[in-house]
Each structure stands twice: as structure tokens, then as C-alpha cells.
Design brief:
It contains 7 helices and 8 strands. 32% of the residues lie in helices and 20% in strands.
Length: 219
């Protein structure tokens, strides 16, 4: 039976010299959504995409745009992301003092509430948030930079979350070092979606449609 798995393009890996062409080619190639990594240089040691990138992407595509917020005190910016058309907001539990309030504000602005967890963040520390969120994004690498090495102990964390999925009614998503073997291993176990970056999608000098056809063929 064919699995209905979602694939999102990690836009920090795109060619910014031809961004509109990239977006159109990814859509034509069959990508399901676009993933924006927003960093403030404090929560992680890097500066990533920003509000202008979100606005531009939202202008070009009608597909879902999800924002992974690697910023401190994201509660201050929820209205701004709502105004710019974000469909999903991933919040890190370490990024503010009252994350449940932040997630409630996300919901109040009509955005899908979601949480992102670093490799060093345990499932137990986010247990109560599972009552609120619709998604959990599991980082298989430390956040902030593309092209990092997969941390294998993350697989056990994903299995813990999948065991809680039906009780709390959320979906599990994968971000970081996403390779064909990991899609083949974790999609059948119940991972709903994967963020594709340099490991599978970008920088291959190949048509995105061909790549996405191969990716879906793994399922």
C-alpha cells in the first residue's frame, strides 16, 4: 500500500541567485511544502532566513509554508509570522519561558502549532506540550547549519514519540541528514513527513522532478 508521506524543501539550501526559479521548479517537481529556517544568531550560532524570505515565498507559492523558529522568545513575533502567511510554526521548548502560552498564541492566530526538539531534548520534557501541538519536528542533527552528521540515538527518540502519537493525536516529522535509507526505515514506522536538504534534494545538478520521483519510489 502506498504511504502518504509529506516532503518539504529546506529552503536554506536553495540557490538564492535563482530563488523564484527554484520555487517554481520544486513545485513542478512535486514537493509538498516549503520549510524555512529562521535564526536570530542567539538561539543558534548562525543567522538564517527571515521575514522577507517568508513574504517572498508566500507571494510565489500557494503550497504550505512552515517556519522553524530558532529564535529566543518567539511569542513576541507570532502576529508578524501570521501576517506574513506562515502555515505552521515550529517552536523549540528552550526558546522561551512559557512555551504553552506561545503555542496557544500560535493557535489563536490560525497557525498550526508545532514543536521542534533538538537531539539533546528528551521526549519527557515535552510531554505536556503534546496536548497542544499537532506536530513534533525531531532534529536528527544539532540545529543551525545544513549538512551536519546524523546522530543515531535520535532513532530511539522517534520511536518513543510514535508510541505516544495516538494517545496525544500529533504527527512526527523528521529534519536533518535525511537520506534514502532513513526514509525507508522510518516512514513505515509512522513518521509523517521529512524535510529534504542537501542529503537528498539540493545541489545534485538534477531535475527536482526526477529526484522526487525517486524519493517517492522509496515508499
Amino acid at each position: 500500500m502506498k504511504m502518504n508521506i509529506e516532503f518539504s524543501a529546506s529552503m536554506m539550501c536553495a540557490d538564492y541567485g535563482h530563488l523564484q526559479d527554484e520555487i517554481i521548479a520544486l513545485e513542478k517537481g512535486g514537493i509538498d511544502s516549503f520549510h524555512i529556517d529562521i535564526m536570530d544568531g542567539n538561539f543558534v550560532d548562525n543567522f538564517g532566513m527571515g521575514i522577507h524570505d517568508l513574504r517572498y515565498l508566500r507571494k510565489i507559492t500557494k503550497k504550505s509554508v512552515e517556519c522553524h523558529l530558532m529564535i529566543n522568545e518567539p511569542i513576541r513575533y507570532i502576529p508578524l509570522f501570521a501576517d506574513c502567511g506562515a502555515d505552521v510554526l515550529y517552536i523549540h521548548p528552550e526558546s522561551g519561558r512559557h512555551i504553552s502560552t506561545t503555542l496557544e498564541k500560535v493557535i489563536a492566530h490560525g497557525i498550526t502549532p508545532a514543536i521542534a526538539i533538538n537531539p539533546g531534548t528528551s521526549v519527557e520534557t515535552i510531554l505536556e506540550y503534546l496536548n497542544i501541538v499537532e506536530r513534533v519536528l525531531v532534529m536528527s542533527v544539532n540545529p543551525g547549519h545544513a549538512g551536519q552528521v546524523y546522530l543515531p540515538f535520535v532513532g530511539k527518540k522517534i520511536e518513543k514519540l510514535l508510541a505516544l502519537r495516538d494517545e496525544y493525536n500529533f504527527d512526527v516529522y523528521w529534519d536533518g541528514a535525511c537520506t534514502p535509507d532513513r526514509v525507508q526505515t522510518f516512514a513505515p514506522k509512522g513518521v509523517k513527513g521529512f524535510v529534504l536538504g542537501t542529503a537528498m534534494l539540493f545541489g545534485k545538478n538534477r531535475d527536482y522532478g526526477e529526484i522526487m520521483s525517486e524519493v517517492r519510489g522509496l515508499l
